[in-house]
Amino acid sequence: MINLLYLPELREMLAEADTKGLHEFCTALHPARTAEFMEGLTATEAWQVLQHADPETREEIFSYFDPDKQLEILETQDRTEMAGLVAELASDDRVDLLHEADEGLVAELLPLLSPEDRRDILRLKSYPEGVAGAVMTSDIARLDENLLVREALNELARQAEELETVYYVYVVDDTDHLRGVVSTRQLLSAISKPETRLRDLMETDLATVNVMDDQEEVARKVAKFDLLAIPVVDDEFRLLGIITHDDVIDVMREEATEDAHLSAGVQPLDESYLKTPIVTLSRKRGMWLTILFVTALFTAFALRHYEEDTQKVAWLVIFIPLVISAGGNSGTQAATLVITALTRGDVKLNDWVRVVRRELAMGLLLGGFLASLGFVAAMLLHRELISAAVVASTLVLVVLAGTIVGSMLPMVFRRLGLDPALMSNPFVTGIIDIMGIVIYMNVAIALLTLTGKMPATPVP
Question: What structural domains and CATH numbers belong to the chain?
Answer without folding.
Answer: 2-128 (1.25.60.10), 142-245 (3.10.580.10), 278-450 (1.10.357.20)
